[in-house]
Amino acid sequence: MSLKTPVLHMLCGKIAAGKSTLAAELASEPDTVLLSEDDWLSTLFGDQMKTIPDYLRCSAKLRQVMGPHVVHLLNAGLSVVLDFPANRVDNRAWMRGLLEQTQADNQLHVLNLPEDARRARFNARNAQGDHPFSVTDEQYEAMSAYFQEPSEDEGFTLVHHHATA
């Protein structure tokens, strides 16, 4: 086990911005665990999630179980890449509450990708069919509209990732 202070890595960005790709890169570091909301939700609730309200209900259940687990991992000295969307103030407040139960550092990775590049990634992801969830164009628009840019006063260490494609 490393003697470094563990880090909670959180990911913020609109749909198809590359959050899960970055999560996998971050999780390749020693003493780091990846927790992917999409993987857990598709396994536990995949047949129950057809609408955004379904997602919100199932995601809330998952957070109830995962929250204490994340705290335990951080307190055990492991860094955690939390591939759960930190796209709204309320989601980030939940993550802030987890951090307050630990001595861990944090990095809120904010991914900024132009709309045309995100749309192309989204279309390619749906065409490939290997993502745990297929999202309709209407859901893409709705999920994009829910996004709230993080601010410095939320108390996170912001790490901005700007990409052009």
TrEMBL record:
Q: Name one GO molecular function term.
A: kinase activity
Give the source's domain of life in one word: Bacteria
Xref: Gene3D superfamilies: P-loop containing nucleotide triphosphate hydrolases
Q: What keywords sit in the KW lines? A: Kinase, Transferase
- Enumerate the SUPFAM superfamilies for this protein: P-loop containing nucleoside triphosphate hydrolases
Q: Which Pfam families does this chain map to?
A: AAA_33 (PF13671)
Record-linked InterPro entries: P-loop_NTPase
This protein is called what? Answer: Predicted kinase
